[in-house]
Specification:
Elements (H helix, E strand, L loop, with lengths): L4 H10 L2 H10 L6 H22 L5 H21 L9 H18 L3 H11 L3 H25 L8 H23 L3 H30 L1
Helix pairs in contact: 1-7, 2-7, 2-8, 3-5, 3-7, 4-6, 4-9, 5-6, 6-7, 6-9
Length: 214
């Protein structure tokens, strides 16, 4: 790895912040605030607690298990999404927030469990994108503060964060019009595909790290 694990996780949550804010503002009229706040606040609290634990925890084996869980969930939701009806309530948002907080605090992976919830619960593309971006903005700010307090990264990493943010914004500019034209079902399938790929990536990275230490 180019950076220690904790620094890499910190950079992963710092780089997308500008794009989170930009997309959230673009779709602000469609944001489901009760879901975002219930999910985000619970997720942030859980994330802080478990991020502190993860700073001294070798999580490779657990991360492999998480990867398999993400793949199974993505396949299940993709196959049965038409029969899955999740209401965008405060309670369901809080439950998704617990899963997202665990994933973010331990592995820097807040998106997959919350992405599954938002994709299933929110009826429109704009509501999904605006809501999940404000969720990411909230928990990423909390994660950055937590990891900065534990010296996971510092001022020397700012140029990389700026460069990554610029690239991320360019991606938004190129993709936003394409996204708006997609039917909701296609967006859901893309979300599930991204989650499955994230699971595969988590498994691959963990196996590589374990082999490099053996």
């Amino acid at each position: 790895m180019l950076f220690p694990l904790n620094t890499a996780v910190g950079l992963a949550v710092a780089i997308p912040i500008i794009s989170n804010l930009a997309l959230g503002l673009i779709y602000r009229k469609h944001v489901q605030w009760k879901v975002v706040l219930s999910c985000g606040i619970v997720s942030a609290v859980i994330s802080v607690l478990f991020a502190t634990l993860s700073l001294s925890w070798n999580e490779n084996y657990v991360k492999i298990g998480l990867g398999f869980v993400l793949i199974v969930l993505a396949i299940y939701f993709d196959r049965y999404s038409e029969n899955i009806h999740i209401k965008p309530t405060i309670r369901n948002g809080a439950i998704a927030g617990i899963a997202g907080g665990l994933g973010n605090g331990l592995f820097g992976l807040a998106g997959p469990p919350v992405g599954l919830f938002f994709a299933a619960a929110l009826p429109e593309n704009a509501a999904y994108l605006g809501s999940i971006q404000f969720y990411f903005l909230l928990i990423n700010v909390v994660a950055i503060a937590t990891r900065t307090a534990h010296h996971a990264f510092g001022l020397e990493h700012i140029p990389m964060i700026i460069a990554g943010s610029i690239t991320s914004c360019l991606g938004i500019w190129l993709g936003i019009h394409f996204f708006e034209k997609l039917p909701k079902k296609t967006v859901r399938r893309l979300v599930y595909l991204a989650i499955a790929i994230g699971g595969l990536n988590a498994i691959a990275q963990s196996i590589i790290q374990l082999l490099s230490k053996s």
